[in-house]
Amino acid sequence: MPEGLSSLPKPLALVVEDEPALVTMLRYNLEKQGYRVEDAADGQEALNLIQEQKPDIVLLDWMLPTLSGIEVCRRIRREPATRDLPVIMLTARTEDRDAVRALNTGADDYITKPFGIDALLARIRALLRRAGAVPEKGQLGFQDIDMDLATHRVTRAGRRIHLGPTEFRLLEFFLRYPRRVFSREELLDAVWGHDIHVELRTVDVHIRRLRRSMNDEGEADLIRTVRAAGYALDTEAV
Ligand code: CA
After folding, report:
1. Is residue 42 part of a domain?
2. Which carries the bigger pLDDT value, residue 16 or residue 134?
3. Phi, psi at 236, each rounded to 5°
4. For residue 109, how far is its CA from the centre of ligand 1 (angstroms)?
5. Residue 170 · residue 225 · CB < 8 Å
């Protein structure tokens, strides 16, 4: 079983990939690690399977027939039922701007082909942990923001806020240590974990997404950017 999930039912991973050899390799390794696996060879089939099977995580190839991975990801995020579904993009593209584009579309993480299976498994575990596979109890709050750790419900001024798993963990971390300034490195360690290599500016991408989700028009931005230092949850945000 994946680490930390031993008492829960086997998580279902959906592999969306049109390269049969890669599907076989992923299926073999994921099943060996205790996951159930479904696969789809094109984007439309993937969306159908997501609706029917409700996977716990999606491994999504970028270049797919019928609908691209980016478009599939967009549709996953648009749909309220799947808005929080963890998505890892598998991309053959090595250009950073494409990776950032994948994150901006709503992917929680990406991995560039060819990748090592251990690196991918570590990212899957980290995302499932963050997605609340191991529930905690309690309530966190700051100003008009409230977070329920058991139900993963986040509200601002009573309004429901929908966050992806990474933004949720970021906000949870800030709520645990309000007014403290954290560097990007500290945020990476706390939210992404030591075992994963993520570029520093990935933090900026997720901070932007968190702000977009939390701040309605006219509302104060509670995340303060501290030049050359990092970020803090604070009332002095500008
Ligand atoms: Ca492909």
Report:
1. yes
2. 16
3. -95, 20
4. 17
5. no
